[in-house]
Amino acid sequence: MFGRRTPPDSAYLRSQAAAGLPVLPSPVARGLAMRIAGSGDDPAERKRLAQMLVNELDDLAGLEPCQITVADRPQVHEHDGRRLQSKTYGYYQCTTREGRVTGARIRIYHRTAVRQQVISPKVFLNTVLHEWVHHFDFSGLRLPRSPHTSGFYARLRALADALEVGFVLPPDPDTVAPATTAG
């Protein structure tokens, strides 16, 4: 049984194929993204800015509204007593009725998992954009699930680049130059 994989389902294949920019951001969206990237530690202010950005992106993409929650608590995580095994930066939830998304919510944890420090503005913005792409998958592409495919990450990268905040994402492994040594 080892090595057997189930073939990708239609949601996976559609997610993989939709690699383009999910929405053409407005100057307002760009400004809001930059304000988040330069924001302070106040969770209420970050929530306000993130909600304004998500509202703008939803309007531009013609999506159902999505509510932002910023939990001023540590990220949900698993620890084996010696090392952090996993952590959750945030998540997206929604329900669907008759093919339409309702009750869409993005929740972002405002503090790091172990040290409980406030997350950086870049991590916060990255999480907002990541979770909004999940919202786009459900509400815009009408996928029954939103897998982390290369198409998903291409949509996320395209959105961050169009917002002129691509610097908040980890570098694309395909574009990172290998280290060289002086000879």
Report on this model:
This protein is of the alpha+beta class and 183 residues long. Helix 2 runs antiparallel to helix 3. The protein has one domain. A hairpin with a 2-residue loop joins strand 4 (90-97) and strand 5 (100-111). Residues 176-183 have low confidence and may be disordered. The chain has helices at residues 10-17, 27-37, 43-61, 121-140, 150-162, and strands at residues 66-74, 76-79, 84-88, 90-97, 100-111.
Biggest sheet features = 3 strands, mixed
Supply the number of helical segments: 5
Major β-sheet strand ordering: 1-5-4
| Cα radius of gyration in angstroms | 18 Å
Shape verdict:
globular
Write the H/E string, N to C: HHHEEEEEHH
Uncertain segments are 176-183
The overall average pLDDT, rounded, is 87
Roughly how much helix do the residues carry, as a percent range? 25-40%
Number of strands: 5
What would you call the structural class?
A: alpha+beta
Question: What is the distance, rounded to the nearest whole angstrom, between the alpha carbons of the first and last residues?
Answer: 48 Å
**How many structurally independent domains?**
1
Portion of residues in beta strands equals: 15-25%
